[in-house]
Amino acid sequence: MSSPKAAVKTARRSATSAKLKSTATRTVAPKPKVPQTGLSADAIKLAKDIERAFKESDNAISEDAMQILMGTLCRVYAAQVENGSKYTPIAEGQVVSPTGVMVTASGLLRAANLAVFELGMWQSWTGR
Hints:
Blueprint: H1 4-24, H2 38-56, H3 63-82, H4 98-111, H5 116-126
């Protein structure tokens, strides 16, 4: 038997999850500046396939697959920035909620055993 407080907390969590899912599924892929071929075209197709499947089920992509994709994208993005690229990881025109960005950033920091303070210090040292 659960308490009324627990029921309210569960309802809020479900509402928040539904809101995040709704926002996540409204992502609009930006128009490519140049024709995409090869691996870039495959990546764009994969992103669209994941979005489409996620609309149907929260379990559309496994935890392992998500972690592998996120890790690879972090490494590739960091390497490109280190080599002088100036683009942001989310293209203009894509709808990603501020909450979604913060949840992801928080998860990335936790995965690397970093605190927000350390991020702030690093940003002040590097100007990024």
